Structures are given as C-alpha cells and as structure tokens.
Amino acid sequence: MTPSTTGADEVLVGFTRAVRSAGVPVTADRTRAYLSAVATVGLDDRAATYTAGRATLCGCPEDLERYDRVFREWFAVEAPPATRPVPPRPATYVDLTDEGDEGEGSGDAEAARAAASADEVLRHRDVAALSTAERQRLAALFATLQVRPPLRRAARRVPARRGDIDPSRTLRASLRQLGEPAEIRLRRRGRRPRRVVLLLDVSGSMSGYADPLLRLAHRVVQGGGGRAEVFTVGTRLTHITRALRTRDPDAALVAAGAVVPDWSGGTRLGETMRAFLARRRDLARGAVVVIASDGWERGDPALLAEQVARLHRIAHRVVWVNPHGGKAGYQPVQRGVAAVLPHVDSFLAGHSLATYAELMEVVARA
Asked: What positions belong to coiled-coil segments (predicted)?
C-alpha cells in the first residue's frame, strides 16, 4: 500500500512494528528517530524514507535484509538501492546573538541523546561481534543491569498487615493495656533470597561470550544477597564465586581467569554436570540453576540429558542460556541442546546485553 498524508504517522508506526516482528530490535527510541527523520526528508520521497529507516531502525548488518523484505511487503514496492544518497537536509543557521549558555546546553543535550541512542543499539548487538572499543563500552553498561534475587517463603513468620492472627503479639498488646482488648496483630511467613547457581561454559566454541558471561556472573554475585554461586564448566568443574566477590569487575575477571584451567578447551558437559551433582548437589537443591552453553557436547549426549534431568528434580528451576538462540534461523539441533530441552524450564537467548536483562528478569520471577 502507498501511505497518504493523512494518518502518515500511523502508517509509519505500523511499519516499525512489522520490522520488529521480523526480528529487528526496534525500540521506542528508534521509532521516534525514524518518524523524525521521515518528517525531515519528506514522506513523498520514497528513497529518502527507505534510507531513513535503514539508518534509524537497523543496528547491525543482519538487520538490513529483514528491513528490506518488510519494506517491500509493507509499501508494495521494490526497495531503492542502499547506495542512493539521501537528499541534503535544509541548512540550519545559528543566531550568533543568542546567549552562549543556551547554545552550549543544546549541544550537550544533543550529545546526550546521541550517546543514549548509541548505547541502546549496543545493548542489542551480538557481544561476540563487537570491536575492542565497543566491548569496553559494553563493560560499562553492565552496571545498568538490574539484579533482583528470587525469593522463597521462609519458615519464620514476620509481622504483616494481612495473614494469620499472631496470638503472642496480640496478647502482649492487650497486657500493655491492662487486659483491655487491643488491636489484633497479624503475621505471615517471611521471604528469603533463593540461591542462584550459574554454570558457565568456557569451552572454545564459547570463547566470544566468556567475558560478557563472567561480567554477568559478577553482577549476580554482587547483587544476589550472598546467595549466588558460580562455576565454570568445560573439561572440568571450577568454583569461581570467591574470585567474583571482588567489587571491581575488571579485577574480579582477572582473579577468575587465574583459577580456571580449561579456558577455550573442549566441552564435556555431561561429565562436568555429573561432577557438580556429586560434589555440590547441596547448592542446587531448591535453587535457580542457570546453564550458559551453546550445547556443543563432545561427550555422550545421553549422559548430559541424564545429569540435567537429575538436576531438574532437585532444583527449583533450570534455565538454559544459549548465545545462538537469538540469531535468525537458529534451530536447537546441537546434540547437547536437543538432549536437555525436555529437562529445562526456560530456554533463552544469551548473545546481547538486552538478553542478559531478560535473563535477570526470568531469574527474579522464578
């Protein structure tokens, strides 16, 4: 269909939703940027409208093909060549008689908006494909992750506005009034943080995601209320919680790297899971267990499935995080993933900061 002047914003917003449905991470900020860009270049110029969308809605090369497909289907036209130049914007003139403070403030606001937009794009990028500078910026963004430990009901009861009658407190309140009737006191079972256990695959196939996953684990340890435990799995099982208790994330990652002997090695998840259940089974009981791995198992997949099934029987929830799960066209055909899928409660992507934020929300609600 061809958009008309009337209801143009509705047509363009609908187009951005279609692009998001196709797998492009279109946020509200990107949508506003797109509407602003189209208003600047003019909706009548189809080539400029197309190029404005590529510039504002797409964050990586993989998004461009999906964007082109949706553009053709939505507007029922062929997408213009991507190399076609965008018509120049009208020149902007600055009144030099204005106060200098206002100009500086406007420039600072524009810079802040540009930085926020760049950070939002970076949140959705595949962490394994980032440059060194982008990885450094992403490391700073990990501080924005909201970590809330999951809660469980405790045996001890606490005062509450709703719940069962608390006879002892009610009686004491009555005695303080010399036996006169007092307000009835109530109580309910309190809540305590539930343990979170992270098992991080550090084999060769996961090398591009090892650093971000360790930064995620550091955030969980720092915000887990002392109830988080972290292990690396590859060819052997290594407990790294003590190293990640260091407050500085860079120092914590250096300390963790010093105690892990099997970086970028092979993958024997079945054997390491069996070792975990043999030695640290108590940590998994009633816990939320997060396994971060791509599932490229060199050992026996049946052994891995058996051990994850055992883990599922004693844990509160088992969450499997696969960095390839959020990529277009991914199918869980790896032997390890296919073997464990019947025994996990949630199967999530784990390739970007946005997916890590989603994981933290799943864990908090467990």
From this structure: none
**The model's pTM:** 0.64
Sequence-ordered list of residues with C-beta below 8 angstroms from that of 358, at least 6 positions apart, any chain: 348, 349
pLDDT digits (tens, 9 = 90+) for 324-365: 887 777 777 777 888 899 999 999 999 999 999 999 999 999
298: left (phi over 0), alpha (psi -120 to 50) or beta: alpha
Per residue, what are the HEC states of 149-190? CCEEEEEEEEEECCCEECHHHHHHHHHHCCCCCCCCCEEEEE
The total number of residues written for the chain in this structure: 366
DSSP string, 101-121: HHHHHHHHHHHHHHHHHHHHH
Burial class (CB within 10 angstroms; exposed 0-12, middle 13-18, buried 19+) of 5: exposed
Rounded distance between C-alpha atoms, residue 106 and residue 189, angstroms: 53
Q: What is the per-residue pLDDT for 252? A: 93
- Confidence band, pLDDT 50/70/90 cuts, at residue 84: very low
- Model confidence band, residue 6 (pLDDT cutoffs 50, 70, 90): very low
Comparing 259 with 179, which gets the higher pLDDT?
A: 259
Structure tokens at 105: 């403030």
d(CA 56, CA 33): 6
Tokens of residue 129, six digits: 């494909």
**How are beta strands 186-193 and 196-201 bridged, if at all?**
unpaired
Tens-digit pLDDT profile for residues 182-199? 888 888 887 889 999 999
Between CA 27 and CA 33, with CA 31 as vertex, the angle to 5 degrees is 115
For residue 296, the number of C-alpha atoms closer than 13 Å in the C-beta half-sphere is: 15
Distance CA 220, CA 214 (A): 10
**132: exposed, middle or buried (Cβ count in 10 Å: 0-12, 13-18, 19+):** exposed
